[in-house]
Amino acid sequence: SQTIHQWPATLVQPVGSPLSLECTVEGTSNPNLYWYRQAAGRGLQLLFYSVGIGQISSEVPQNLSASRPQDRQFILSSKKLLLSDSGFYLCARDSRGHEQFFGPGTRLTVL
Amino acid sequence: AQRVTQPEKLLSVFKGAPVELKCNYSYSGSPELFWYVQYSRQRLQLLLRHISRESIKGFTADLNKGETSFHLKKPFAQEEDSAMYYCALSPYGGATNKLIFGTGTLLAVQP
After folding, report:
1. Which residues, 6+ apart, have CB-to-CB distance to A52 below 8 Å?
2. Hey, what's the torsion of the CAs at A72, A73, A76, A77, to 10 degrees?
3. Cβ separation of A42 and B100 shorter than 8 Å?
4. For B45-95, how does the pLDDT look when each residue is reduced to its tens digit (9 = 90+)?
5. Which residues of A touch B43 (CB under 8 A)?
6. Which of A36, A55, B1, B54 could crosslink A90 through cysteines, CB 3.0-4.6 Å?
7. Distance (Å, rounded) from C-alpha B93 to C-alpha A7?
8. How many CB pairs below 8 Å do chains A and B form together?
9. Bridge partners of B28?
10. Cis link prior to A8 (omega < 30° from 0)?
11. Backbone angles phi, psi at B80, to 5 degrees
């Protein structure tokens, strides 16, 4: 099994509040992990990727941060949410065949 | 700059009609190209990749390096093809298989 879990599934948060989205993967060790955001009219944008524990690369400057405290856990965070952080957040992992497998996503609405 | 362009946000066709979803890319090297699909209430998943040169669910895509295009085609659309389609590029080399996505095209197949 190469299951990817994300929670929560949906989240409504006020502007200025903190954020923590969690992604866990099963069935593989030392996966490359990714956070994407799907915003209205903007497609899927890569936010962060990680090749191992404690190793985070940021693709775009933003109000968010990521951490990888365990091999199969990838967390997306913010200290103070902005309206522009609203969107659909997808966690993904890749395989040796370069295919990426995606989680079910988290719908974040910032009010 | 690395970029994937999908010029159509929405493509509506009738069942049995041919389908072509356009994708153009900008990349200085030789990328790997993919088509991902998201059916209603399902996860984003890989449809096909250019190096496989295979037909999946009747869809094919040919990489045209001269025109830097990777259009997705199907000769006879089916209602179950209705979904969101994303073209994606993965740069060769590096430690990851991160993807650069287009903005997506919603395919609606009418009965």
Report:
1. A30, A68, A71
2. -160
3. no
4. 999 988 777 888 999 998 898 899 999 999 999 999 999 999 999 887 666
5. 102-105
6. A36
7. 32
8. 52
9. none
10. yes
11. -70, -5
- Joined together, the tokens standing for residue A68 give 């990888």
Residue A49 and residue B46: Cβ atoms within 8 Å? no
The pLDDT of A79-104, averaged and rounded, is: 89
Two tokens, residue A9 = 């599934």
* Phi, psi at A87, each rounded to 5°: 160, -175
For chain A positions 20-49, those within 8 Å of chain B (CB to CB) are 32, 34, 36, 41-46, 49
Q: Which residues of A touch B102 (CB under 8 A)?
A: 43
A94 touches chain B (CB under 8 A): yes
Q: DSSP letters along chain B, please?
A: --EEE---SEEEEETTS-EEE--EEE-SS--EEEEEEE-TTS--EEEEETTT---BTTBEE--BTTTTB--EEESS--GGG-EEEEEEEE-SSSS----EE---EEEEEE-
Sign of CA dihedral B62, B67, B70, B76: negative
Nearest residue on chain A to B9, alpha-carbon basis: A41
> How many CB atoms are located within 10 Å of the residue B92 CB?
11
Specify whether the CB–CB gap between A18 and A65 falls below 8 A: no
Backbone angles phi, psi at A48, to 5 degrees: -145, 155
Which residues of B are less than 8 Å from A34 in CB distance? Answer: 96, 98-99
pLDDT value at residue B2: 82
Instruction: Using CB atoms, pick whichever of B34, B86, B98 lies closest to residue A43.
Output: B86
